[in-house]
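Predict the 3D structure for this chain.
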Amino acid sequence: MPASADPRPYHHGNLRTELLAAAERGLRAHGADQLSLRDLAREIGVSHAAPRRHFADRRALLDALAEAGFVRLGADLRAALSEDDGVRAEDDGRRDFPARVRDAVTAYARFATENAALCELMNSSKHHPGSPLVTQAAAGAFQQMTDLIEEGQALGALDGSDPEEVGIILYATVQGITAMVNNAMIDAGRLDGLISTAVRQFLRGARP
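Done. Predicted structure below.
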């Protein structure tokens, strides 16, 4: 039998997971343009054909990476909204609404600054017409913020404007702060303080 041109194994126990982890490392270090399935296969130590069992092409890999990012973001937002910091509203025993907004927005801001390259990919991929799973994952993550805004409207803490428009205003404010941190225009140590100020001003301006 002739020797194989590529002696590396075709199968790999957790190949999809390892490919995504390697892709995220590459994304952080070199950006999305430098990612390739062949290079990732070489890094992990499998045959160059093995990744195509999970990702048909480079676009599919990037979409999976973006989808996984939105799933993680959604989990971070859920955790922030369910945390107990001891500040409670008198009517239902939950943390008061401003605290919930602050904690959720802070969770997003930290995710966006700790995963800057991934967030850039997530934001570009969610509008890609051939990426329905990314769009669904993004909607699932951000629906929590829409629900939070609707909760604030029901409590009388926010005016009755279109919740989506209210969310866009809040998102644009936070996105601006995180972009300035990611571009080293603002020291990262100021992030939490700036987010708290932004949320406080947002809530004051959005009162009925």
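The chain is about 65% helix and 0% strand.
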